[in-house]
Amino acid sequence: MRYIIIGAGAVGGSIGGRLAESGHDVVLVARGAHHLALRDHGLRLTTPDGTRVHRPPVVERPDEIDLRPDDVLLLSVKTQDSTAALDTWAARPVAGGGTAGETLPLVCAQNGVESERLALRRFRHVYAMCVWLPATHVEPGVVSAGGTPYTGTLHLGRYPSGTDETAARIAADLEKSRILAPVVPDAMRWKYGKLIANLANAVEAVTGRIVGGEARDLAARTLAEGRAVLDAAGVGYVSAREQEEVRSRMSFDPYAVPEGGGGSSWQSLSRGTGTIESDYLNGEIVLLGRSHGVPTPINETLQRVANTFARERRPAGSLPVAELLRIIDAGA
Q1: Region of residue 72 (phi > 0: left; psi between -120 and 50: alpha; otherwise: beta)
Q2: Mind listing the pLDDT tens digit for each residue in 32-78?
Q3: CA geometry: angle at 238 spanning 187 and 178, to 5°?
Q4: Are strands 142-145 and 43-47 parallel, antiparallel or unpaired?
């Protein structure tokens, strides 16, 4: 199997680098300065066991590569970029007949729960992947991943549910690459559990690391609001105990990531991308809350503030927690 990593940033770069390191066939897809750095200097991946440079083929557009029947498309762009990526890849012809959307498996290795629905409109064979993989896109061409002894845990299954031989083969390749990959029939239950955990990403992105009492309390309130919405909507999600069991199999080496680094939303603001994934994290809770009559004042405010930060390219972590709390109280 050959792995086409669509979005070779923090998560995609870590997965692609580990697969390449273990001898698997990998193609990295990236844009702009990151694409140029990968093309000219390779992918520099730092993990607790050292720094290695991997030089798999790198492309910027689907028309730069001939797709094969044994390809696996692994989508790891942010959800706000999913539609554009899916549209450009689904119609690409595959050697031997058919298009990517008709014949190839597509794995959504992303936060949130929306990309699978978007993908299923365009691809027949969609797989959900719940990503527990602490990593940072440090600079063009450079990625750091701090998990040890495994780089991450990626629960994998068919969407909307079930398992099959393709999922088992992908998991086997990941397991050989120092990434845990449990194949589960309820991958979306894992992704909804991760969604709850990711609701605090916006707090970290706009106020900085969640270390003080006020920040921790706000994060807890944000997650509690999300759980209340999923319960009202009848959506199943993994428990905190199940998530802790996953995390207990890995430890995190802080020296493997840059000082001051944060989660995926913090990274979007720090790189000044102009977009952030809060519409598909906090915004998912807002959507379900409105659909089921459950107020979501905290997540609604976080969604709005995070989007403002991204649009105005305000520095990550620059809003005091006390000020964010005043904004939330004013909008409640």
Answers
A1: beta
A2: 999 999 999 999 999 999 999 999 999 999 999 999 999 999 999 99
A3: 60
A4: parallel
> Model-level pTM greater than 0.90?
yes
Closest CA to 130 of 117, 148, 111, 149: 111
Tell the residue number behind the tokens 């450009």, with chain if given. 88
Q: Which helix (H) or strand (E) holds 233?
A: helix 213-233
CA separation for the pair 48, 71 (Å, rounded): 30
306-317 burial by CB neighbour count: b if 16+ within 10 A, else e? Answer: bbebbeeeeebb
Across 59-68, 99-108, 191-200, 258-267, least confident range: 258-267
pLDDT tens across 93-113, in order? Answer: 999 999 999 999 999 999 999
The pLDDT score that the predictor gives to residue 258 is 55
Q: Look up residue 4 and give its two tokens.
A: 């086409």
Residue-by-residue DSSP string for 31-88: -HHHHHHHHHH-EEEEETTEEEEE---EESSGGGS-B-TTEEEEE-S-GGGHHHHHHH
Strand 142-145: give its sheet, edge to edge: 50-54, 43-47, 142-145, 135-139
Go through the chain and tell me how many residues it has: 332
State the pLDDT at residue 257: 54
- Residue 324: partners with Cβ closer than 8 Å, 6 or more residues away: 203, 206, 207, 218, 305
Q: Which residue has the tokens 């030089």?
A: 55
How much is the average pLDDT of 231-251?
91
Tell me what pLDDT residue 195 has: 97
Both tokens of residue 233?
Answer: 């909507």
Distance CA 309, CA 248 (A): 34
